[in-house]
């Protein structure tokens, strides 16, 4: 009987020893994979920084020189560039023929960036807070891709900097896209440093709400982020330059449901002060919350209180 248990004990001991070695080998392999992942993350961050530098995010203030930047309008390529402002002045003074320009609120000749030999803009276009990669194509016959105040061109893509959804104090480059999913628009917000956290839906507000809810969970112990969903604004569709580019497309006038873009006065907050869109504004709220949650250090009581009468 003892011999039976002894053989059983030795067999279990050998299995345990084998499992210990397997566990050690797996630990070594996991450590090696983690090292490779860390190296891959560093390489990715380095490439993202180089991409931002190449696409002009770090040289926003240096591209305002009109001598270096080309005019968006084809009037700069011709010799009649001085006639544009005079015609606009006559139209506004007489009150006729300026309905379209007053409704648009901005003309293409007022924006300056590089153009090709045909007068079309060269992408990407740096718009300070966002980088426009593609304007996409307007689908006027499909009412799902436009409404009373917004137009959603298929293939539209921008990138912008905002807080990482899981690490709000770290910057992250977000790619915003509009795609055609079987006749319905599909909006996507893709953080470059975390491709597993992709926000998508049938409206821009659904994507923006998902991003803000993830940020709220990450900031639960720090501050309460206001849930102001403004999907179109996050996608850059409220930018006046992008709206002008949309108005310049031939299919813009054929969007039957569209009436006019929302003006900047109709927004609740300016973009540079909105923590749901601007990275700097969000960091200000986080810093103020951290300051107010610090324990107050009170002065020590005077020695006279401890003296006996």
Automatic annotation (TrEMBL):
The keyword Nucleus applies. SMART domains: FYRC (SM00542), FYRN (SM00541). Keywords: Nucleus. Pfam families: FYRC (PF05965), FYRN (PF05964), INO80E (PF24237). Residues 5-51 form the INO80 complex subunit E N-terminal domain. Gene3D superfamilies: 3.30.160.360. InterPro entries: FYrich_C, FYrich_N, INO80E_N, TBRG1. Residues 79-90 have a biased composition (Basic residues). GO terms for cellular component: nucleus. One of its GO terms (biological process) is regulation of cell cycle. Residues 60-103 are annotated as: Disordered. The keyword Nucleus applies. This is Transforming growth factor beta regulator 1. It comes from Glossina fuscipes. The gene is LOC119635296.
């Amino acid at each position: 009987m003892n011999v039976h248990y002894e053989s059983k004990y030795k067999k279990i001991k050998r299995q345990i020893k084998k499992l210990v070695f397997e566990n050690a080998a797996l630990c070594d392999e996991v450590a090696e994979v983690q090292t490779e992942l860390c190296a891959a993350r560093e390489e990715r961050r380095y490439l993202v920084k180089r991409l931002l530098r190449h696409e002009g995010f770090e040289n926003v203030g240096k591209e305002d020189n009109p001598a270096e930047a080309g005019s968006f309008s084809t009037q700069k390529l011709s010799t009649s560039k001085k006639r544009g402002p005079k015609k606009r002045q006559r139209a506004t003074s007489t009150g006729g023929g300026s309905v379209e320009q007053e409704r648009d609120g901005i003309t293409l000749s007022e924006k300056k960036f590089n153009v090709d030999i045909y007068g079309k803009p060269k992408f990407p276009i740096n718009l300070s807070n966002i980088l426009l990669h593609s304007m996409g194509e307007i689908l006027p016959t499909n009412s799902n891709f436009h409404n009373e105040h917004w137009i959603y061109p298929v293939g539209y893509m921008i990138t912008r900097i905002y807080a990482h959804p899981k690490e709000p104090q770290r910057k992250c480059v977000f790619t915003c896209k509009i795609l055609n999913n079987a006749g319905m628009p599909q909006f996507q917000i893709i953080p470059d440093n975390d491709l597993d956290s992709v926000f998508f839906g049938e409206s821009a507000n659904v994507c923006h709400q998902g991003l803000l809810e993830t940020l709220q969970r990450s900031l639960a112990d720090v501050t309460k982020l206001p849930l102001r969903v403004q999907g179109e604004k996050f996608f850059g569709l409220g930018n006046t330059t992008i709206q002008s580019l949309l108005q310049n497309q031939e299919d813009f006038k054929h969007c039957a449901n569209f009436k006019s873009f929302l003006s900047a006065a109709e927004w609740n907050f300016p973009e540079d002060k909105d923590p749901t869109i601007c990275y700097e504004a969000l960091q200000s709220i986080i810093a103020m919350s951290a300051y107010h949650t610090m324990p107050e250090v009170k002065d020590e009581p005077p020695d006279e209180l401890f003296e006996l009468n």
